[in-house]
Each structure stands twice: as structure tokens, then as C-alpha cells.
């Protein structure tokens, strides 16, 4: 078990009508003027934004609004948020939406008190504690950004998509009402389930030996996703299934599922390049395609770990051949993603042998995660390895 | 899944030499003068206190000291701590020890800023946010007080032992170095393992249906204790076993293992009376005796829940007879506690048929948990039920 530090200060309000407490909880914590940050039309049309405006007004909290966050949130809108926060002396940022909105809000909260442009932090990873407090009303369980220390922002001008990690940008308040997720379309629900499952895989497969307390907790979340995913897809308004998935999504990326381990994160790096190459690819769908390919490529480094995973998560009975058990676990993973309606090949995402080579030429030079150095810890990958994994995923 | 709020703001520093960071971490957070609070001789003789004094001195943090915390910490010493904090304008309380020291530190931190005597909060359960920040260097994994919202304090004058729960008294910093637990005697190690296991049982058995995310997480911790307990008892200086147990002990009582459930806590109530009647009884040992008896008494309310627990934690194969499976799970629980070297009958704790009746006459009128009302949620217990459970435990 490796040394670690861990902190997760988010105060969660979970359950029916959680968002009705937005105003009082923010006012209790001294908020006087919030930036209400959101995405497209759904939060407006559902009446959610109006309920939140009402809750804030009743608590005497003033509001500045900034909508229009897109998937893969972009730095230009973040800068506009920073400008609004400075101009109006905003003291909290309130995100209403999914991971993209929360990540955009995190970037605004980092940029608002700073003397330098916010991209500086994404470029240099410089740590700061001077960050506006963030609250979240979550509408899409997937990214886990409602409690995580991470945010990912795109910079179209530079053709980059990069992350910033800082414990001080973990949201201080998160309102999680499972009913807000009843209307999520099946594909988005499934992509979210895939993303959260992959947050666990990235933490489970690394170069550290067994860490039973962390591994068992991680596996318990995988099992929960496996059991609840079919329920939530078959019955989208099943409150309990939605509630279990919403809370699981938070736990998958808040950090406990990886403490004491090195973690890997190579596949997330490969996927960020893929969805930067073709922005129509949803992150969860890209992961569903790439993770089984990565697993097959790296499996030899520690097949027993894959066999253990297969036994615990998919109930596979050991055959006595660890290599075969490991491959069965990978097959089960691919089948699980397929059962959710996810693509499991790049072909299904529209790539061909020719366009894949173009994609690889585009992706490898910008594989930001490592600047050309081997990356990942279960089995460190070279650029050639990365190309091989993309080809295996076709 | 019931509505809930949850927050666990503790910043953990975990691993080898964690306590060497006490001074810098406290100074970073603005501490200028701490109350260094501890128990008996072991922290002094091991050199731990000297290392902590050195770390604080190097960071320029002034120290006021108060040792002498006893098991079942008492309000008189708490009041002395409050007086010292007021007199010396202490701004942090630093506990070095196990659950008793941390609980005493929590009570001091509550009392120090208050205009009323600290017992007021234990008596009325009145909530306050005006609490000194608390840091912990943990030496005994058991109570989970290093991250929990709870503290239990005795008042010898009133013949009472009672708890106070407040999220604002959760420690802000916790230093967990598994090496500090290498010298714990086997009985104390085993009593700690029992206490943490019972913190999970109290959360698992209640009147709420399945909450898969919480239940699976809870069960994963039970399995970790079951697997690591023999390792740590056979090989007390096994760093990884001690590390897994130390982190598990925190997770068992920090709250995640019960969110969305009502929880029960009847058995803890019964045990607090027992160890108040005979103060030589260790809390973990009292729980090892009373929990299986409670299980047998309440099992009929939902035998399927016990059968599920037996399957998951002890690997019991279902027989088709849920009642029989439930009883097997209870037998396994008792056998597990016995395997740790814990007593499993009141007889082993020195009670006889006659002295037990005296004990019951002493305990029932003061069963503080409920003031005579039925208590617990899996199956609400009357005073007669409580007496029956004590008698079953003989």
C-alpha cells in the first residue's frame, strides 16, 4: 500500500428535491452573488433552472448567469465566466448540468481570483488555493466531477484538450436528485455508466500489488454498476436504480477507489486524443472501444490481476489457466459494454483502415498525457504501443 | 434509498512517517498554538510524543499539553482542556492516541469556544459550528473517531456515558501511520477489529430495503476485515495488513457505509450500558458478546437479510431454507469473533445468573439511548427485549 494523501470535502445533499435547498445551503455558507453556469436547453425547458433561480431569490442570493457550455467545454466561455465573476464580484460558482458544465465551472472558479489567464493553470499545472467555492446541481451521473479534484478543458485555438487537478477545486456543495436523471436518453445513460466503470478500471489495473481495502471497495462499485445498469436502462424512471447509479458515479471518481495505488490512466489519455480527432465521439463510447483493446495489449504484464477481476466482477469460475481466465475477463468486459448499447470497435465509430492511419498520425504527436514518454503504470506504453492499441480496436 | 446529507472533510496523510508532517500541515492551516492531548505512557515511551513536539517546534507552532486521557474519557479532564484552551488562546486541538483521546479532544474543541459548560452539548445535543479545528495522530484503529462525527464521553458524577454527534467536530487533519500500530497487544488489536466490524453491522441491519451501492461498499469492508484480521494477528508487524486495517477502521465509521439507510445502533446502546456497569469490559469485547445475541433475537424480522450477509461475507452456500441460512450466518459471526480471541458470552466476562440480574437492574433504568422508548430500527426493542438479549448472551 503506497503512501497517500486524500481529502474529499464536498457536502452532499442527496435525494428527492435536493435542489430545492440550493438557496438556503448557499446562503448559510455566506454566498451573496453566484455565477449560475449551465449548458443548453434541457435545464431551461425542464423548469430546473427556474426552480433554482427561485430558490436563490428566496434566500436573497443574487445571480449572474452564463449558459451555453458545450460538451468538451472550451476555454473561451471559461474566460467569459472569469470576466463576469470579476466584474460582478461573484463569490460562488454554481454549476447546473453534467461533467462538462462542472468542469467549466471549476475552470472559472480557478481563473476568477487569479491575476493571470486561466489557461496558465492548465498549461503549467501550478497549484493554487485561491479558488472560488463551487456548488453543483448534477443532471448527468458519469464524469464524477461533482466531487473530484479534476477538470478537463479544451482550447480550440491551440487544438488542445487538457486536464487540471487540484484538491482546492473539489466542489464544496453537491445537490444530487436522482429524479433529474429520469429523462436522460439511453445512449447518454449508457455512456455515463461506461465512463464511471472505466474510472474504476483505471484505478484497479496498475503496477502496485493487492491493496485489499481499496480493491474490495473498487470491486464493490463495479458490481453495483453491473447490477444496476440493466435496471436503469430497462426502467429509466426507477428511482432506486437511478439513485444507486448517481451515488456510484460520484464514488467512482472521488478518489477512495484508488488510494494506496499508483493508478494507470493510459486509456483515458488514448480516448481524449480520439475524441479530439473526431469530436462527434462521446467520451464513454470511446472508452468502451479502447478499454478492451488496451486490456488485451497489456494483459501479459499481470494476467492474475485480470483473472481476479473476472472472478469478482463477472463471477467467472477459474479454469486453472490464468491466461485463459484473464482473456475471459476481457471478453466479459467487452460484452458488458456491448450490452449497454455501446460500440466496441472503432469501425462502429465510423473509422476504416485508411482513416484510422490518418487518425493515428493526428493523435500520436499530440498525445498530451506524456509528451512522448512512456505512459501508464500497469505496462508503460510507447508511442508504437499506442498505435498498436488503436489498430487492435478497429 | 433514503434521502441523506453527507460530508467528510478530513484531510488524511497516510503512510510511513505520516506524523513527521504534523508541524508543517498544521502551520499551513494557520495553527499558532495547539493543545497536545494524549493518554498514558505508551506515546511518551515510544518516542512518538517527542517526535511530534519536535515537528511542531520546527514549524513554529506553540504547544500546551494535557495528557492522562483514560479509556471511556471523562468530562473532568475535558473541562481542564477547555480551561487550558481558553487561558492560552489555543487555536487547534491535536489528539495523539486512540478513540478515547480523539473523543476527549472533540469535546474540548466543542467546549473551548462556548460560553456554557461543555456537558450542555452532550445533554441537549444542541448543534454548534463554533468548534476548534481538530487534528489526530492515530495509534489505535478501532473507533473510527479520526474521521467520524461522533464522540462519547463519560460523566462519573452523574453516572452517565453519552454521545454527541456533529459534522463540525469531524477532524480536519488525520495522520495515519500503520507502523504506530505494530506494538498494539493482540487483545487490543482484536477488540479494535471487532469494534470496526460492528460499526458495519449496525449500518447493514436496519428496516430499509436493499441499497446496493451502500450495501456492497459495506460488505467489501467486512470482507477486508475478515481477510486481514488473521494476517494482522499472526504477524503484528506486517505493514500491509496493518495499513489495510487502519484505513478500513476509518471507513467503517466515517459514514459512507450507511448512507441512504436508517442504521440501527441498538447493540451499541446495550454495550455502552454493559461497560458502564463493569468498566473493566472493553467496548469491542462487549460487542463481541452482545451482537450475536442481538442477531438471534431480531433475526425473524428479516432472515433474508442475514442470509444475504452470510453468503457475501462468509461465503455460505444457500441451503434453500432462509431461516437456517440466517442462523448459520449468526453462528459464523460468533465464530469469527471467537477466532480473534474475543469472548462470546457474558459468562466469559465474569457474569453469573445472579450478577447478570443485578446488572440488568442497573442497566435498564439508564439505557440512555431511548429513555425507555423502543429503540433500534431492524426490530424496535422494548426494555423487556433488552433484558432478554442480555440473558441470551450469558
Topology (elements, then pairings):
The structure is a homodimer of 394-residue chains.
Chain A: E1 4-14, H1 22-28, E2 33-38, H2 42-45, H3 48-58, E3 62-66, H4 75-88, E4 92-97, H5 99-111, H6 119-124, E5 134-138, E6 150-155, E7 160-165, E8 173-176, H7 186-204, H8 212-234, H9 239-254, H10 266-277, H11 283-298, H12 303-314, H13 322-339, H14 353-363, H15 383-392
Helix pairs in contact in A: 1-3, 4-5, 7-8, 7-9, 7-11, 8-9, 8-12, 10-11, 11-13, 11-15, 12-13
Protein name (chains A, B): Iron-containing alcohol dehydrogenase
Domain Fe-containing alcohol dehydrogenase-like C-terminal (chains A, B): 189-393
GO molecular function, one term (chains A, B): methylglyoxal reductase (NADPH) (acetol producing) activity
Q: What is the CATH homologous superfamily assignment of the largest domain in chain A?
A: Dehydroquinate synthase-like - alpha domain
CATH-defined fold name of the largest domain in chain A:
Dehydroquinate synthase-like, alpha domain
Work out the count of structural domains of chain A: 2
Structural class of chain A: alpha/beta
Supply the number of helical segments of chain A. 15
| pLDDT < 50 stretches of chain A | none
Kindly report the spatial arrangement of strands forming the biggest sheet of chain A.
1-8-5-4-2-3
Q: How much of the polypeptide of chain A forms β-strand, as a percent range?
A: 5-15%
Tell me the helix content of chain A.
40-55%
Give helix and strand order of chain A, one letter per element, not per position. Answer: EHEHHEHEHHEEEEHHHHHHHHH
Looking at how many chains there are and whether they match, the oligomeric state comes to: homodimer
Classified by CATH, the class of the largest domain in chain A is: Mainly Alpha
User: How many DSSP E strands of chain A?
Assistant: 8
Q: Largest interface, and how many residues on either side?
A: A-B, 41 and 41 residues
Architecture per CATH nomenclature, i.e. the level-2 architecture of the largest domain in chain A: Up-down Bundle
End-to-end Cα distance of chain A, whole Å, is 37 Å
Arithmetic mean pLDDT of chain A: 95
What is the alpha-carbon Rg of chain A in Å? 21 Å
Sheet with the most strands, sense and barrel status of chain A: 6 strands, parallel
Shape of chain A: globular
Keywords (chains A, B): Oxidoreductase
GO molecular function (chains A, B): alcohol dehydrogenase (NADP+) activity; butanol dehydrogenase (NAD+) activity; metal ion binding; methylglyoxal reductase (NADPH) (acetol producing) activity
Protein name (chains A, B): Iron-containing alcohol dehydrogenase
InterPro entries (chains A, B): ADH_Fe/GldA, ADH_Fe_C, BDH-like
Amino acid at each position: 500500500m503506497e503512501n497517500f494523501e486524500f481529502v474529499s470535502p464536498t457536502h452532499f445533499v442527496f435525494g428527492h428535491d435536493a435542489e430545492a435547498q440550493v438557496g438556503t445551503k448557499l446562503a448559510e455558507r455566506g454566498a451573496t452573488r453566484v455565477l449560475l453556469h449551465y449548458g443548453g436547453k434541457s435545464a431551461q425547458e425542464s423548469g430546473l433552472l427556474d426552480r433554482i433561480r427561485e430558490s436563490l431569490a428566496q434566500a436573497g442570493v443574487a445571480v449572474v448567469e452564463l449558459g451555453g457550455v458545450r460538451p468538451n467545454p472550451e476555454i473561451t466561455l471559461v474566460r467569459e465566466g472569469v470576466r463576469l465573476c470579476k466584474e460582478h464580484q461573484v463569490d460562488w460558482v454554481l454549476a447546473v448540468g453534467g461533467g462538462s458544465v462542472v468542469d467549466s465551472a471549476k475552470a472559472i472558479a480557478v481563473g476568477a481570483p487569479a491575476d493571470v489567464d486561466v489557461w496558465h493553470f492548465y498549461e503549467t499545472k501550478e497549484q493554487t488555493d485561491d479558488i472560488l467555492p463551487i456548488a453543483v446541481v448534477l443532471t448527468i451521473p458519469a464524469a464524477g466531477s461533482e466531487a473530484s479534484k479534476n477538470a478537463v478543458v479544451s482550447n480550440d485555438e491551440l487544438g488542445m484538450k487538457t486536464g487540471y487537478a487540484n484538491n482546492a477545486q473539489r466542489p464544496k456543495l453537491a445537490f444530487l436528485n436522482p429524479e433529474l436523471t429520469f429523462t436522460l436518453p439511453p445512449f447518454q445513460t449508457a455512456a455515463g455508466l461506461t465512463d464511471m466503470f472505466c474510472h474504476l478500471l483505471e484505478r484497479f489495473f496498475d503496477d502496485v500489488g493487492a491493496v485489499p481495502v481499496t480493491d474490495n471497495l473498487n470491486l464493490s462499485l463495479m458490481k453495483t454498476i453491473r447490477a444496476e445498469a440493466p435496471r436503469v436502462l430497462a426502467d429509466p424512471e426507477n428511482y432506486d436504480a437511478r439513485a444507486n447509479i448517481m451515488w456510484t458515479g460520484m464514488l467512482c471518481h472521488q478518489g477512495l477507489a484508488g488510494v494506496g495505488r499508483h493508478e494507470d490512466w493510459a486509456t483515458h489519455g488514448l480516448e481524449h486524443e480520439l475524441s479530439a480527432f473526431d469530436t462527434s465521439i462521446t467520451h464513454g463510447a470511446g472508452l468502451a472501444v479502447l478499454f478492451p483493446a488496451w486490456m488485451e495489449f497489456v494483459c501479459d504484464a499481470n494476467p492474475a490481476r485480470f483473472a481476479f477481476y473476472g472472478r469478482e466482477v463477472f463471477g467467472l469460475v477459474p479454469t486453472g489457466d490464468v491466461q485463459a481466465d484473464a482473456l475471459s475477463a476481457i471478453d466479459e468486459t467487452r460484452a458488458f459494454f456491448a450490452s449497454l448499447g455501446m460500440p466496441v470497435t472503432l469501425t462502429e465509430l465510423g473509422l476504416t483502415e485508411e482513416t484510422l492511419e490518418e487518425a493515428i498520425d493526428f493523435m500520436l504527436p499530440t498525445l498530451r498525457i506524456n509528451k512522448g514518454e512512456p505512459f501508464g503504470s500497469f505496462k508503460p506504453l510507447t508511442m508504437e504501443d499506442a498505435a498498436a492499441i488503436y489498430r487492435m480496436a478497429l
